[in-house]
Amino acid sequence: MTNTALAAADQGFEKSVDRLFDFVRIQSISTDVAYKDECEKAARWLVVELTGLGFSAEVRPTPGIPMVVAHYTPKSVSAKTPHLLFYGHYDVQPVDPVELWHTPPFEPTRRKDKDGVERMYGRGTADDKGQLMTFVEAARAWISATGGLPIKATFLIEGEEESGSPSLVPFLEANKAELSWDAAFVCDTNMWDPKTPAITTRLRGLVHEEITITGPRIDLHSGLYGGAAMNPIRVLTKILASLHDKNGKITIPGFYDGVKPLPSATKKQWRSLKFSDKKFMGEVGLAVPAGEKGKTVLEHVWARPTAEVNGVWGGYTGVGAKTVLPSKAHAKLTFRLVGRQDPQKILKAFQKFAKDLIPKDCKLEFSGKGGGTPASEISEDNAFIKKTSAALKSEFKREAVLIGSGGSIPIVRSFKDILGMDSVLVGFGLNDDAIHSPNEKYNLSSFHKGIRSWVRIMGALAE
Amino acid sequence: MTNTALAAADQGFEKSVDRLFDFVRIQSISTDVAYKDECEKAARWLVVELTGLGFSAEVRPTPGIPMVVAHYTPKSVSAKTPHLLFYGHYDVQPVDPVELWHTPPFEPTRRKDKDGVERMYGRGTADDKGQLMTFVEAARAWISATGGLPIKATFLIEGEEESGSPSLVPFLEANKAELSWDAAFVCDTNMWDPKTPAITTRLRGLVHEEITITGPRIDLHSGLYGGAAMNPIRVLTKILASLHDKNGKITIPGFYDGVKPLPSATKKQWRSLKFSDKKFMGEVGLAVPAGEKGKTVLEHVWARPTAEVNGVWGGYTGVGAKTVLPSKAHAKLTFRLVGRQDPQKILKAFQKFAKDLIPKDCKLEFSGKGGGTPASEISEDNAFIKKTSAALKSEFKREAVLIGSGGSIPIVRSFKDILGMDSVLVGFGLNDDAIHSPNEKYNLSSFHKGIRSWVRIMGALAE
Predict the structure, then answer these.
(1) Which of residues 44-83 of B touch A (CB under 8 A)?
(2) What is the model's pTM?
(3) Which terminus of chain B is more exposed, N or C, with fewer CB under 10 A?
């Protein structure tokens, strides 16, 4: 059955490109209210397409930009047929600076570049219209070739991802029963390289804090008071400088509670990636990894927590010199979390750590919004991971690598916390796709292999 | 002779107040070009007054606001008669916020307040018109009572002190021969308290530096790079936090070269001041002195050097959180210097200290303007100090205290470096005079005792 569907995908590929181009022409920029109608147009476009495939599809209102929800139940289902949620987003980034685009962002262009690679240029060709159309077109291939999908499927396609998904959590909470299935598949990530597929199984969590130290109650003259009055910058820098020891380890007591060592199989796989620490660091002008000694750069960014100062300020920061001994000093911090690190415990541990370092006449205030997101990790033994992995291998003739992402994808936590589902993150983007930048592109091969991969994954999931 | 002059000072005191009021009515704000004519008017007013006393007085042009230079040579001079320079400034601070003044700033008002103390209110009543008029009126008393001054005198009165004295150094250099005499007397400082006169014999020096650390060449996403890429804020805070050890001592190697221990006589005198560390610290909301353990607060601010961070900035400092790992972090520092600390050596020592703390792939830049001013200290055994001290004791029936000032008074360095003269800093201001603030005032007693003190000092210097 899968082979029949694959043949249909190949045969229909030119039309798949045409449809993607139609979709890209809709200027669904969610961050700018001027484009609200275009966003709604994109939602309706998806509903028409999915309805045409036999989905029961709807534009679902939210206080912001609507969701598209579409369900598909195949005619012949067994008790074992899994029901899976597929997630993508139809909104796109703004196009500024538009003068840097070589072709108009909403007039998608297909071009064979000088390196012989065929690419589609336009805003959303990759992020996330091109990516979500890989599973839409895979569904089309299955349905046109075999009369139906091999699995039960729900497509959830939002229109606010680029503006922080403000309606998503309430929507998931209000529609739990309709959206909670066996697992979620998220198509918004990249391949390891143009030849190597990847499944992202680790996402770091995140919690942030803001700290203000008050020394003297007013700004003082550094001559008249300097030496006697405690400078809050001195206190703040002492706290911030104490966060890491000389080996890059974070010194907050209890910070590593819940951090598990990397399984040796994973460690081995990551080593086999031949990831160049030198190249990765060199691209940003650095050479010496800042993380814990004895661990690789991939471990640093995928599997280890961080304590990062995102901003620091206090005293006089204008031009020239000013002999002020300031009253206040501030810093913003984020902690990236892994394993079972608890954001609330991390915040408390940091707060205690800071308190222990301030003189008793200085004041310490925390003004972070609290909250935070724990890390998301899906076991490599998870059946959905295994099936997806095998399907990708069939398509690419290479083992799919199980990678991490240093960043956070909040949807994954929401699927877990609200809907009780693990997420499998598979995407076909490449690091040079210039998503969020001028001249966003998606390789023809990303789109084609992406569709074929989903055909295979859907087939494998049914088994 | 001195007693005759004192009697004349008492007798003429009401007229001295009238003259000060005339002087205060001139709106000589040097920081605002709109008041340039008023500044020149104040200079001319002084020239008329001093010429009337028998000085050869002139308004002397500069590229900015003019100087007043006036010389007086008594009829009978001996080879031993000293020639002394008296310095003050006729320009005043702006008056904003003018709505906070209880009486108009340029309509001087004499008032007995509820505490029974008579005060003169108005901009410049203290700083520095009231203060400089103490030596002008003392000269008048000597001349009217005895027919002349007992010393040779040059009065140098500038009009740009409140705007950073841009013309002063070139003027001193261009007029060395005319201005280089046995010692300078500067009347722009305060008494220790309303009953205790003070001579400021120690001024800390100053040198500043600005440091920029570059980590990655561009701002990075703290998720994608956090853990691997070195955060320049981490490097900067390590440097800044390392400046002081846990006992408040500065750790830069060689920093204390040239710092002498406080003479035990001075230490004893400062102890006798019954200075309340608690009150001094409490006024600014603090309780724990930040300086070196085992030293008093007066030592911290008058006799010990500092390493102070005046400003720090880097990364995101706006509202809310931003997960940035910044490219750059910055700090501005000043070092207050004492004894024979050399500003250039201090800068070099700090630069080396910072260099030793940065990872080899990070960049370190210094952008301070260099320069700097060493400390000014005048020996307590200096003959002019001794004579001034004795004269003040006769007037106040109390020992004059030899104090320090944590701040820097650049004129003192210029007199030393350009004219080769030590400066004796005597003034009759009080800490609550609100100079630079609304409702600036000068106590009648400050003015009266000030005039009498200069009568005595001039007499003592002639002996």
Answers:
(1) none
(2) 0.84
(3) C
